[in-house]
Amino acid sequence: MTGLRRKLGVLDSGIGGLSVLRQVHRLLLHHPTIYVADQIHIPYGPRPAEEVHSFVVPIVEFLMAHGAEVIILACNTASATSLLLLREAYPDIPFVGMEPAVKPAAEATRSGIVGVLTTRTTANGPLYERVLDRFARDVQVVTQIAPGLVPIAEAQSQHTPESRAIIESYVQPLLAAGADQIVLGCTHFPLIADAIQAAAGARVALVDPSPAIARQAARVWPSGMLPPPAINQYFTTGDPARFQSMLKTLTGVDSPVQQLSWTDSLELEVTNPL
Length: 274
Ligand code: DGL
Hints:
Bound molecules: D-glutamic acid
Largest sheet: 7 strands, mixed
Number of strands: 11
């Protein structure tokens, strides 16, 4: 094992994965992280699974080439399209994936009704099917596809009247069905949890799996590996200045962000190396 391969790789279509990364930074203080936001392709949620997978594979290869030892798919959609395939293709790399947190919600519900806010591709994917099969036998799960929440989270515009109306339009059917738990089944949604909570009311609990994901990353971190000093790297295929400002607002980290670009043959190049 080379000294290079000691980082925790994290990917998402945008800033959503920062909801996971900030938990990782809290729990794994000394672990260097490398984050890729594929903002040029956001949103992933409405895209066909094959297309999302065709983006995720080169990002994973980029992370591995830059030293990722463990990779978190900090994106429910990318996990739905790619987690099982990646584990098969790269058996030496521990992948941590996200699936809607129906299990804790099913354990906590008193009304017996669990709402799930998520993306279309996550809702149609194999992980969600498996989760429902395993954990939703004794509760009713109401799934709300909420594509309009991703751009709101990405722009952090959740407090405008227009955004509030969109958020309410997704939350209302879950309340009407009697849900007392709302699972945040997209990593962008914890970044607008304040507005979702306001629309849902104080009696409804929001379920955010990101602390559990950070704990899982700590569990699969190869034992005996001494973490080097934590130097964290950030890359986006979108606008680095914009990502940098969101990074600071959402995680308190003030760090340069490097520009990544897709080539015509769907490979990734760093176009402003530090
Ligand atoms: N944050 C992602 C997820 O957890 C993707 C949202 C999107 O790009 O549609 O699903």
